[in-house]
Write a structure and sequence with these properties.
There is one protein chain. The longest helix is centred in the middle third of the chain and has 24 residues. The protein has a two-stranded antiparallel ribbon. The radius of gyration is 20 Å and the shape is globular. Helix 2 runs antiparallel to helix 3 and helix 5 packs antiparallel against helix 6. The protein is built from 17 helices and 2 strands. The chain folds into 2 domains: 140 residues, no CATH class; 89 residues, no CATH class. A hairpin with a 2-residue loop joins strand 1 and strand 2. The protein is mainly alpha-helical.
């Protein structure tokens, strides 16, 4: 991958070739967005925009096949990369990605074709005998197709926001590898959101969990920022303690099996600032 990054940075033609070819690969197509982001981070929005236009060609083929993710991420990654290039803070990128994820979540109201395809898929799965269990009044009951569609679509904005951040992290990591060794690690470990932003997110999350219907589909998206903050805390403390990979493994296991604890840690850090307190001690 480092050699691919070096090849990409050797010129515009090379960047276009890398972005287009990666965009044609079924599994690795999102790396095309990382190529575009790398160009934008290093050379600015104009170069990133030109490479993005070429990368949209294979992404457009996926759009015609019914997968809009590649196009959406490509359109979002250039402004996010430029935001990171100017702000030099991942907190700004995370907030920007969450806002874009919110826009995408709202766009489901006009994506009738996509919603219809998801509904048909869920109905087909249930018709084939698949049984999904969801908690209702403290009891696990069989889910209807409508409930499964609502649950699946509630992750739409969060999924795209996470992919945007992920492809940008890959680009920043290899930019640091080439031009600023260790820079990505320092940036990510410093990720901490403004207290006011986190309090607003917390209020909206509590509202969604309390059953406010308009906020229920936004809970996962709004929890993305505190989860990333909690991972930054763990990475930072593990580096300071030279704890090795054991702490990090435990943190990612907690993310899988105890996600609410990681969310709470991220929200609490906006007030307590665990890394600052740890440094003081």
């Amino acid at each position: 991958m480092r050699r691919l990054a070096e090849y990409t940075m050797s010129g515009r033609r090379q960047a276009v070739i890398a972005a287009v070819l990666l965009g044609l690969l079924p599994v690795l197509n999102l790396l095309s967005a990382s190529i575009v982001a790398l160009v934008a981070l290093r050379k600015g929005w104009q170069e990133g925009f030109l490479v993005m236009l070429w990368a949209l060609l294979p992404a457009g083929l996926q759009w015609l096949a019914g997968d809009t993710t590649a196009v959406v991420v490509l359109l979002a990654v250039v402004p996010l990369a430029c935001l990171l290039r100017v702000a030099q803070r991942w907190s700004a990128v995370v907030v920007g990605a969450v806002v874009l994820g919110g826009v995408l979540q709202l766009s489901l109201s006009i994506q009738t074709g996509y919603v219809a395809r998801v509904t048909a898929l869920m109905e087909q799965m249930l018709a084939q005998g698949m049984n999904f269990q969801l908690p209702q009044d403290g009891v696990m009951t069989s889910a209807t197709a409508e409930q499964m569609v609502q649950l699946f679509l509630s992750f739409y904005g969060a999924y795209h926001a996470l992919v945007m951040i992920g492809v940008l992290m890959v680009a920043r990591f290899y930019q640091a590898k080439l031009y600023n060794p260790g820079g990505f690690r320092v940036e990510f470990q410093a990720l901490r959101l403004d207290t006011r932003v986190m309090l607003v997110c917390l209020a909206l999350v509590v509202g969604g969990l309390a059953g406010v219907q308009v906020l229920e589909d936004w809970v996962t998206l709004l929890c993305l920022a505190p989860i990333l903050t909690s991972l930054a805390i763990v990475h930072s403390l593990a580096a300071r303690q030279k704890a090795g990979g054991s702490w990090l493994t435990l943190a990612y296991l907690m993310l899988i099996f105890m996600a609410p604890a990681m969310v709470i840690l991220g929200f609490a850090d906006s007030v307590i600032d665990f890394r600052k307190r740890f440094s003081a001690k």
